[in-house]
Design brief:
CATH architecture: 3-Layer(aba) Sandwich
Number of strands: 10
Largest sheet: 7 strands, mixed
Shape: globular
Number of helices: 12
Strand content: 15-25%
Helix content: 40-55%
Order of helices and strands: HHHHHEHEHEHEHEEEHEEHHE
Strand order of the largest sheet: 1-9-8-2-5-3-4
Radius of gyration: 21 Å
Length: about 300
């Protein structure tokens, strides 16, 4: 019986998603970006407020000072509203490359990616669950880079609606997502010179501890570093910042030095470089650090005290 209700729930969700897919695409065609956003904002604000009644934010765990102040109920409601709004963009990825939308996303540091591709190196883009990270692939493809995202789990878990939306992505012949059971396909994707997005704050696979800030460490997934070493790839940190009103800034940091991608002993140095490149964005926009990111933060243990022997 439970399986039946679960199947019914999935079927209803897919049907609703397809309905909204058609509505959003038609509205996007008829309205300017600003009018479309303004039309949707009150609806999603109400939805966020309603969900907050049934799913109140969990008490914040102990966090670094610059993050603690941003963990309020009001900010959590705003994050939920903005998340609903930003996910709408996923319904028309094929139109983001046009003049109507490209001025909605500033891109800085793109030369690092371009240089790596000119050098015929594989490109790995390391990111955290920060800002509207789920839009990274969409804006990159709109800019002419057939990026895909590496996702945990097995490929069979990809939802039907997501597979349907994949058909509308630029470069539809190139997969938009890879899973842990598709590592051979990942190798071919990278060898073809396509950028692969991979999170470093995922709770799966091998992990390592990297310094984060004073008194805190970061539990980092090593998948990005290991793939970079295996494929001799350029490992480039990237972040996307929500600037409000469907305006974004996509930033690429300095690639990890090749000396940090030699052996397993170098992994922490590579991880420290990635975090250092992203830290400025975390501190400037702490409210955009998701729970998936903050759960990786671990307080450093107090220094052990060595008892002094009596004279």
């Amino acid at each position: 019986m439970q399986r039946f209700f679960n199947s019914l729930k999935v079927a209803f969700k897919d049907a609703a998603g397809l309905c909204f897919f058609s509505i959003f695409r038609q509205a996007e065609r008829l309205l300017s970006g600003q009018r479309f956003y303004s039309m949707l904002r009150p609806f999603f604000a109400a939805r966020a407020g309603l969900n907050s009644l049934f799913k109140p934010p969990q008490p914040s765990a102990d966090l670094p000072d610059f993050l603690r102040a941003s963990r309020t109920v009001a900010i959590a409601r705003q994050q939920r509203r903005d998340g609903y709004l930003n996910h709408v963009i996923e319904f028309f990825p094929d139109r983001l490359g046009g003049a109507k939308w490209m001025n909605h996303c500033r891109i800085t540091g793109l030369s690092h990616v371009q240089q790596a591709r000119q050098d015929r190196r594989a490109v790995l883009l390391a990111f955290c669950h920060f800002g509207p990270y789920y839009l990274l692939r969409f804006w990159l493809r709109a800019a002419g880079f057939p990026a895909a995202t590496f996702i945990g789990g097995k490929s069979e878990i990809r939802p039907r609606l997501a597979r349907f939306k994949d058909r509308f992505s630029p470069f539809p012949e190139i997969p938009v997502a890879f899973y842990q059971d598709q590592l051979r396909a990942v190798s071919g994707f990278l060898a073809a010179g396509n950028p692969l997005l991979i999170p470093i704050d995922a709770p799966v696979g091998k992990q390592m501890i990297v310094p984060f800030c004073d008194g805190w460490s970061f539990q980092m997934a090593t998948g990005a570093v290991r793939l970079a070493i295996r494929h001799r790839a350029a490992l480039i940190p990237c972040s996307i910042i929500d600037e409000g009103g469907w305006h974004f800034c996509l930033k690429f940091g300095w690639p990890v030095p090749e000396a940090y991608l030699a052996t397993e002993a170098d992994w922490p140095r590579a991880g420290k470089h990635l975090l250092a490149e992203m830290m400025g964005e975390f501190q400037a926009h702490p409210q955009q650090c998701s729970v998936d990111l903050t759960r990786c933060l671990k307080p450093n243990p107090p220094p052990s005290r060595i008892p002094t022997l009596p004279a």
